[in-house]
Design a protein that fits this description.
mainly alpha; Transferase(Phosphotransferase), domain 1; three-stranded antiparallel sheet; 6% strand
Length: 873
């Protein structure tokens, strides 16, 4: 019958298709050699193959232009053109274009409103992505997105809609190279690529723990800095630009913001996006990093065998456009491409031989990628942390979760990790009993690991479910977890609702509940709600101590975080007890080979600060310097820990009478913070406050005032006007104005501080004593002696109750009270206070310290007014 192909023609077409699929993985002479061999003696077959390859070349330019990008450019009407350079968008002026793609144009910009100097990356979003809800969605989400403070995440700083109606997003400016270009240009080994990828996983895992899904993980959204730290860009931006998240009706349902090459099946089909979608995208990224190139899927819609399409790879190309390379949305098996790509690599400058490169394609790595990229979300890794852990297991030579479990596999891994020991044991234990013991041991271990895997999977699924509910907090439908059904909600409301839901829904999973309570405690502290932070951190610690045991590092982590909150509550004894226990736990863990340098250093820091507040400055400094040693190798944003410790060392130097040493350490801390990749402004403000207070003590009032003003402005910008850090900067400013003789401004600032303290602190908090002491001193010098005496006696009683006898803070209040009584002519009452103050300060700080000299002047003024000779020294 005309038009019906014979069986031989069908077979030839099938064979031609298979050859084309294989040929696409090679180029130039290699491709021609493969075709010559595959089509030997069959001219018709060769003609069919050449025709298919020629068709592919003709179609490539059209096929590889994504419909997503084509549509965006069609609707954009040229917005985001380079002509915007020099214009002002919001508070920023555009300096130069640094990238562009389907979503819009990215500019290097700088702050232009005079508030402070700052360079940022500012993305002007194409109008085609904007809708009426975008501004409201952004304001609703940006508090959560801006809280992602992690060394592997570039922070979202600001955003809005410009005067021209163009949405814009302001991000931390990262100087770096795309992760795939970084790997290929440096000819990185498999191990190096995997370790780099683990940094990406840690950033994604941190975001998931903080209730944020990325949605658009791809190489152009990951830059590697000069020190080798991967930084994730555009966190949460895909959600902001997704009209389906707005809660209203939209006509552009096809304009979901994602990159097809890296999107999960559920993302492509418009289903609910969860943390599993990010895990899928991580799998695609890992596949491409290992292969050293990106997949070409143009031919993937119909492979040689139904349901099993093949895929090839092409050499890396220019990545200036952050758009996908293809419109094909079919998802493919992963093992074949990794294997075929790496075999074709040749030895280069890095000295990697083809044999060594083939190890990229070990079956374990293939299975890890396959598990991460499984079409069914439930069969992927339960979390980015679980994927990260499996890669670490691979690097350590331990069995991986993605590999089919068998005794042979586990035994082989064990033998490779312990070659020498196994060889020696083999010479001795070649007996039936030895074989039985080994078999039983391996079986038990396999069972235990399977049980642990099931537990971890269940835990991750439960956390994932909890996360999905909280991500929907701003929905207004009947399924919304927001009881008030408001479409604009604050982060405080989301935290409060998360707290209630956690205890109600996770009561049957105490380990998961403890992890969520830990995160809630840290989040409440970030909002300045110390009492709520303590409540959740205490619950987390008690649960972990009961479930995991006192030696578990998670228990020590909760103890450290709780001890830190006790310091801010002024409960130094409780802080010392708890942090001392945490330090001991970390030391024992280090002896076992388990080291968490960041939290170990933090525990030492909290311990040092707590004993320092109690008056033991030498013990405090010793603990803090040990913390510096423990955290010596911290990098990236974690390096901020060292800056904080330097600051606390400076305070203890000052508490021992070494003012110049205090100033040196504080300046060193400030310099360290200013050079961090993501400058921690709130910590910087604390250090500026401390430095300003010591400059006031030295008598350098003008310089001190400038530092304290900068600190206060930063506090208002970062933690708000009700936070204890802001109160501290006000108190130090009041003291500075008092010493300058500007009593009107001094009383104004200290009154502001006390008003905030009464609203935010519990009655009897030790920080009231500092405010009362300074206010009493100011009132004394203004001539309001009775009122000043009242404030100073309140401060002295509180400090004597909370601190050990002989503390320099007690001596400071005694001196101020003695000065007030002297001004009232009550010399006999003033003398013992001034004498004790001078004696304590001289013993603790030395005779040359400015505070000791002030105490001496107060005593001399008493004797002069009293017409009584000073006692012999």
């Amino acid at each position: 019958m005309k038009g019906t192909k014979t069986e031989s023609e069908v077979e030839r077409l099938r064979r031609a298709d298979e050859i084309v699929q294989s040929a696409l993985e090679f180029w130039g002479d290699e491709q021609r050699a493969l075709l010559d061999e595959a089509c030997t003696g069959d001219a018709l077959l060769r003609a069919e193959v050449d025709s298919l390859l020629n068709y592919r070349e003709q179609a490539k330019d059209f096929i590889e232009t994504p419909a997503f990008v084509f549509g965006a450019e069609w609707w954009a009407d040229g917005d985001g053109a380079p002509g915007k350079v020099g214009q002002r968008v919001g508070a920023y002026q555009l300096v130069r274009e640094i990238g562009h793609g389907g979503m819009g144009v990215v500019y290097l910009a700088q702050r232009a409103d005079g508030e402070f100097e700052q360079q940022v990356a500012l993305k002007v979003v194409r109008r085609s992505f904007a809708d009426a809800e975008l501004g409201r969605r952004f304001r609703r989400e940006r508090q959560i997105l801006a809280s992602l403070n992690h060394p592997n995440i570039a922070r979202l700083l600001d955003g809005g809609v410009s005067a021209e109606g163009e949405p814009y997003i302001v991000m931390e400016h990262v100087e770096g190279v795309r992760i795939d270009d970084y790997c290929n240009a440096g000819d990185l080994s498999t191990t190096a690529r995997l370790r780099l990828f683990r940094g990406v996983c840690r950033g994604i895992s941190f975001a998931h723990q903080n209730l944020v899904v990325h949605r658009d993980i791809k190489p152009s959204n990951i830059l590697v800095t000069a020190d080798g730290t991967p930084k994730l860009l555009d966190f949460g931006i895909a959600k902001l630009l997704d009209p389906t998240q707005g809660g209203g009706e939209h006509t552009r349902t096809g304009m979901r913001a994602f990159t097809p090459d890296y999107a999960s099946p559920e993302q492509v089909s418009g289903e609910q996006i969860t943390t599993a979608s990010d895990v899928y995208s991580l799998g695609v990224l890992l596949r491409d990093l290992l292969a050293g190139s990106r997949p070409s899927m143009w031919h993937g819609r119909a492979g040689p065998t139904a349901g099993q399409p093949r895929w090839g790879a092409r050499p890396a190309r220019d990545h200036a456009q952050d758009a996908p390379a293809t419109t094909a949305l079919t998802h493919y098996p992963v093992a074949e491409t990794i294997a075929t790509n790496v075999v074709r690599e040749t030895k280069g400058d890095g000295g990697r031989t083809p044999t060594a490169v083939r190890k990229f394609a070990g079956v374990e790595l293939q299975n890890i990628v396959a598990m991460a990229m499984h079409d069914e979300p439930a069969r992927r890794y339960a979390s980015a942390a679980q994927l990260d852990e499996d890669i670490q297991r691979y690097l350590d030579g331990r069995p991986v979760r993605a590999q089919k479990d068998s005794f042979t596999y586990r035994a082989g891994k064990f033998i490779r990790r312990n070659r020498v020991g196994v060889a020696a044991a083999g010479l001795v234990l070649l007996t039936l009993v030895g074989g039985i013991i080994a078999t039983v041991w391996q079986a038990r271990r396999a069972t235990a690991e399977r049980d642990r895997a099931r537990v971890e999977a269940a835990k991750s699924a439960r956390i994932n479910e909890f996360l999905q509910h909280l991500l929907g907090f701003s929905q207004v439908g009947w399924i919304s977890p927001n009881p008030q059904k408001k479409n604009v909600s604050t982060i405080a409301e989301a935290l409060d609702e998360a707290s209630k839901r956690a205890e109600r829904e996770l009561a049957d999973q105490p380990e998961i509940l403890a992890a969520v309570q830990f995160t809630l405690g840290q989040s409440y502290f970030g909002q300045g709600k110390v009492d709520l932070a303590v409540q959740h951190l205490r619950a987390s610690m008690e649960t972990r101590r009961r479930i995991l045991g006192p030696e578990h590092l998670d228990t020590a982590q909760s103890m450290t975080a709780l001890a830190e909150q006790f310091v801010f509550q002024g409960k130094y004894g409780e802080a010392e007890t708890l942090s001392r226990e945490a330090v001991a736990t970390y030391r024992r863990a280090r002896e076992r080979g388990e080291v968490n340098a960041r939290w170990f250093a933090l525990a030492l820091n909290v311990f040092g600060v707590s004993v320092g507040y109690k008056g033991d400055a030498p013990a405090s400094e010793a603990a803090l310097l040990e913390a510096v040693q423990v955290g010596a190798n911290l990098t990236g944003q974690d390096r901020g820990m060292i800056a904080v410790i330097y600051s606390n060392v400076g305070i203890q130097r000052g508490n021992q009478g070494d003012i110049d040493g205090a100033v040196d350490y504080l300046q060193k801390s400030i310099e360290e913070m200013r050079h961090l990749p993501d400058k921690p402004l709130s910590n910087l403000a604390i250090n500026l406050s401390n430095l300003g207070s010591f400059m006031t003590i030295k008598g350098e009032y003008v310089q001190a005032e400038s530092l304290l003003r900068e600190a206060h402005d930063l506090n208002l910008q970062t933690v708000g006007d009700k936070h204890l850090f802001t109160v501290m900067s006000l108190i130090y400013l009041a003291d500075n104005y008092c010493e300058q003789g500007d009593y009107d401004r001094a009383i104004k600032e200290v009154n502001r501080a006390l008003t905030i303290q009464r609203e935010t602190l519990q009655q009897g908090h030790i920080d009231f004593a500092r405010s009362w002491t300074i206010r009493g001193k100011i009132l004394t010098r203004l001539g309001y002696l009775a009122e000043g005496e009242e404030q100073l006696r309140l401060a002295l009683a509180l400090r004597q109750k909370a601190l050990k006898a002989g503390h320099t803070a007690i001596a400071g209040t005694q001196g101020a009270l003695g000065e007030c009584l002297t001004a009232q002519g009550r010399y006999a009452e003033a003398e013992p206070l001034l004498t004790e103050s001078h004696k304590t300060l001289a013993a603790k700080l030395g005779a040359n310290d400015p505070r000791t000299q002030k105490a001496n002047r107060r005593l001399a003024a008493l004797h002069q007014a009293w017409l009584k000779p000073a006692p012999p020294a």
